[in-house]
């Protein structure tokens, strides 16, 4: 999840490191900029709950918020990310945080890659017909890919494959 | 509510502007600094839900987060405040935000008053035996007082009293 008050990117990816990944779903939870803050957070919660209900992910990765951007945006992002973390943790789903540069480095090889580069690599890695739009949706998929590649210990499917492979070797 | 990841101050005050106010409850929702962020947000949600269940406030005032403090603290405060806003808004309770200087100005007459001054005025205005501890608890009460004084239009009890008074006058 790429949290934001106006647009919360959500991407669902299945797979393990070292094998082709599959996009299961992608989208954006939007809230109207003219609504009051409390209502926007409630709408984000409802939107995220729907995604979690539908896809029941085994892990949720959320972009770690930094304050290098402008202050007003960061506050909203921090608050939207709190809702994402809350929704996942409340269900007992493990949550991981990755910084934007970790995500860019994971999918493009450079922590300073631009949005177009990230979109292009997400498109290639998930074998999509076109880069997902808007950028928040592509960013959410990049985050999911980054997490699958960076955190094998948190990925039960990955553990199962590793176990199976090692069993195969020892057999 | 004075939001924070480590300590969330909660104060419940009853009354209308121009009349003595009554403290109904005060306390702090704490979360362990060594817990992961998601678990802390879940614990804050549970703590706030208990307060809302018990007191069923007609309005919730939350301190507006500013970024003048250090960045790490502000992120946590923004995230804790998101949970407070979410809990209240989800129940349809009107939420108001007041800045720290608005709160200080309301209860002490100066937007730059220190914690001791705020604590002393809260003690006096609510006719308490001693200043509430910790400071987050006193700050939450100050915020509630500020809200009652600043936002008569949002206070149904206040409206009822105003209506009654005006009826009395016109009778």
Task: Give the overall shape of chain A, derived from the CA principal axes.
Answer: globular
Structural class of chain A: alpha+beta
The low-pLDDT segments of chain A are none
**Helix coverage percent of residues of chain A?**
40-55%
Average pLDDT over all residues of chain A: 89
Instruction: Compute the number of helices of chain A.
Output: 6
User: If strands are numbered along the chain, what order do they take across the biggest sheet of chain A?
Assistant: 1-2
* Most extensive protein-chain contact, per-chain counts: A-B, 25 and 25 residues
- The helix/strand series of chain A, from N terminus to C terminus, equals EEHEHEHHHH
Total separate domains of chain A: 1
Radius of gyration of chain A: 16 Å
**Corresponding CATH superfamily of chain A:** Ribonuclease H-like superfamily/Ribonuclease H
Number of DSSP strand runs of chain A = 4
- CATH architect. name of chain A: 2-Layer Sandwich
The CATH topology of chain A turns out to be Nucleotidyltransferase, domain 5
Oligomer: homodimer
Strand proportion of chain A: 5-15%
Q: How would you characterize the largest beta sheet of chain A?
A: 2 strands, antiparallel
User: Which class of chain A in CATH terms?
Assistant: Alpha Beta
How far apart are the first and last residues' alpha carbons of chain A, in Å? 40 Å
Subcellular location (chains A, B): Cytoplasm
Cofactor (chains A, B): Mg(2+)
Organism (chains A, B): Streptomyces afghaniensis 772
Binding site for Mg(2+) 1 (chains A, B): 2, 136
